[in-house]
DNA sequence: GGTGGCAGGCGAACCGGTTCAGCCGCGTCC
DNA sequence: GGACGCGGCTGAACCGGTTCGCCTGCCACC
């Protein structure tokens, strides 16, 4: 348990004042190049690492951002989405030597409380908002607090801070047109949680696209994203008198569950039923047949979100309220691409 | 953007000194009950939340623990294990108002560097060590550093800090005996990463248990835990001349992949092949047939690990080096239970 | 009534950085 | 030769808590 060395140790070792050491280490003017070099050498030799708390206290910056997830232990585990997102966020953050603080919460109230506490404690410099809902209460709350934030999802009308999102409209069209071309006329969609923004966006995109084609029916059933519900809904859909020849799922977990149900019912895939998944985690390639899915690069998405948050925080520090318009920018990522695999095929005559 | 209020604000509002406020807020003696009540009331009214950096700086405690994961973005996402573990850890931490800092690293060197930095920055009060390997270099490194840590896995010979683990020996026996009873004599196991401690433990447990029964063959093939390798190995196993009638997988992702391969090869499950998975995430119940698996409560496991780390940190603070023997305790969790499902059945004659 | 003990509270130092006013020495310019 | 400017560095204040020594006033006791 070696003692941690402080800036004062370096100062005495170098025969200069604490202030000079601080200037030297932070690359600021105020010391000559020769003394700077000497100080840096001594610091490196002694293995100096600044104490975060002390720095945070002076500059009142935490060098940390936070993410609060409002999902249960079980559902958060199966969704590869979150870990991939976090992983992408992390890669950008650690490049900028920022830390990530994670908190899992149960309710909206808890989540808001976490933000308030983080803000009051100066524990984080900014946060990511996941699972953006339609009319999300968190948006105004966070904005009122003055806590820098980036919405992981969008677009958001009249947003008071940046949002990063994928265009979901084009992929919805791609999927429907693809299925239409394969001859499917009776299509069902197992959608995600109804309150979520992207669910609403996809709902609308499907409806509008379907209107332009000549489907017999395009039904949407909402779910909670869990495999259980995915299976249950699929079972219901497939046992109806006029069952669909293709089902589109809003995530990969439900698609896998749906495939399981189809197997259970003895349906041949893709001959008797085509399956499309949204979000192409490795999961989609583990099944047989492999799932046709909408591929998005979630880690890259996370990176982009982190970039947005870091620039927002940086901007906050440099420019002042005049630069407000710069904060509300939104960033659109490349839309997902459809990756056809074995789970989709021509509709049976 | 309301101003954050400080202890000094409360002091002036209450007409006392900063010191008195500190005593009052921390429930320490030094103030009368009446002034304490007054101070608490004022603090609550003003919505006071202490600045973490300032507190950390004085008491040199971060109220935060860290976890570094050394996996790639893709593989970390599919493994429900990690998120479930983190979720469990979180639930205990937030109850003790501790934060969790997460970092994803690429190499061992990076991971060690992260620990060193966290320690030097006083950024965390302790860490969790995941994916414990045989002869893990991190153990001595962390112990030498004097950074409190809990090993998520074990048991570890001559450990210098606590380890929390599940007994893997009994489950291995349970699985083999179960398969034996079903009439399987030719069993294969797709094991995890060879360097990991629990892989070694299971390797040995299988070998020893198998020796006591009368199997024709019990082969073990090691993998990297990914679905790709799981599929590849399964394909090889099933296309060999003397193919196994049952395959045991060391995680759920590979088991799902194996099931996919079996489907692909047209094998009826469980008639022609029985499949057993380790770690019963919801994934195991999504497939058809559902996977027989070894159920462990991973969130509870995470909670236990967090408890161990918190008591270790607490103990560190209260007692001194004399209490060293208390640090090296190990904690064994309830072993996993076998949950038979549709993927296992009697061996074909 | 003088004294000791003690609860209650004050003021200042401290944690380890950052930052700013100010000082010193040197070169430059008028 | 004196005023000025400026690079280089020091010393001290400051961030917002915690903690410790010490002072005060009150009560009990001899």
Automatic annotation (TrEMBL), chains A, B:
Residues 5-59 form the HTH lacI-type domain. CDD domains: HTH_LacI, PBP1_LacI_sugar_binding-like. PROSITE patterns: HTH_LACI_1, HTH_LACI_2. Gene3D superfamilies: 3.40.50.2300, lambda repressor-like DNA-binding domains. Keywords: DNA-binding, Transcription, Transcription regulation. SUPFAM superfamilies: lambda repressor-like DNA-binding domains, Periplasmic binding protein-like I. One of its GO terms (molecular function) is DNA-binding transcription factor activity. Transmembrane segments: none annotated. InterPro entries: HTH_LacI, LacI/GalR-like_sensor, Lambda_DNA-bd_dom_sf, Peripla_BP_I. PANTHER family: ALANINE RACEMASE, LACI-RELATED TRANSCRIPTIONAL REPRESSOR. This is DNA-binding LacI/PurR family transcriptional regulator. It comes from Glycomyces lechevalierae.
């Amino acid at each position: 348990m070696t003692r941690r060395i402080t800036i004062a140790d370096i100062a005495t070792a170098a025969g200069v004042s604490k202030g000079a050491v601080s200037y030297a280490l932070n690359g600021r003017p105020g010391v000559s190049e020769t003394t700077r070099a000497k100080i840096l050498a001594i610091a490196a030799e002694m293995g100096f690492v600044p104490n975060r708390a002390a720095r945070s206290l002076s500059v009142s910056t935490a060098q940390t951002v936070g993410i609060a997830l409002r999902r249960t232990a079980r559902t958060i585990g199966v969704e590869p989405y979150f870990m991939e997102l976090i992983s992408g966020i992390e890669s950008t953050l650690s490049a900028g030597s920022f830390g990530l603080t994670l908190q899992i919460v149960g309710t909206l109230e808890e989540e808001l409380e976490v933000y308030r506490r983080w803000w009051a404690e100066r524990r984080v410099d900014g946060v990511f908002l996941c699972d953006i809902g339609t009319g999300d209460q968190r948006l105004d709350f966070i904005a009122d607090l003055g806590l820098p934030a980036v919405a992981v999802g969008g677009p958001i009308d009249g947003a008071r801070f940046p949002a990063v999102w994928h265009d979901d409209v084009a992929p919805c069209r791609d999927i429907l047109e693809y299925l239409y071309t394969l001859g499917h006329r009776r299509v069902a969609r197992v959608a995600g949680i109804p309150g979520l923004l992207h669910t609403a966006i996809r709902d609308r995109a499907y409806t509008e696209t379907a209107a332009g084609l000549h489907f017999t029916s395009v039904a949407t059933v909402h779910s909670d994203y869990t495999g259980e519900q995915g299976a249950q809904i699929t079972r219901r859909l497939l046992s109806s008198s006029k069952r669909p020849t293709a089902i589109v799922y809003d995530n990969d977990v439900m698609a896998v569950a749906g495939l399981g149900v189809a197997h259970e019912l003895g349906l041949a895939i893709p001959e008797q039923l085509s399956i499309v998944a949204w979000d192409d985690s490795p999961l989609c390639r583990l099944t047989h047949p492999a799932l046709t899915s909408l591929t998005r690069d979630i880690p890259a998405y996370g990176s982009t979100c982190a970039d947005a948050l870091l620039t927002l925080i940086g901007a906050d520090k440099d420019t002042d309220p005049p630069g407000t318009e710069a904060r509300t920018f939104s960033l659109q990522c490349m839309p997902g691409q459809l990756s056809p695999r074995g789970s989709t095929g021509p509709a049976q005559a």
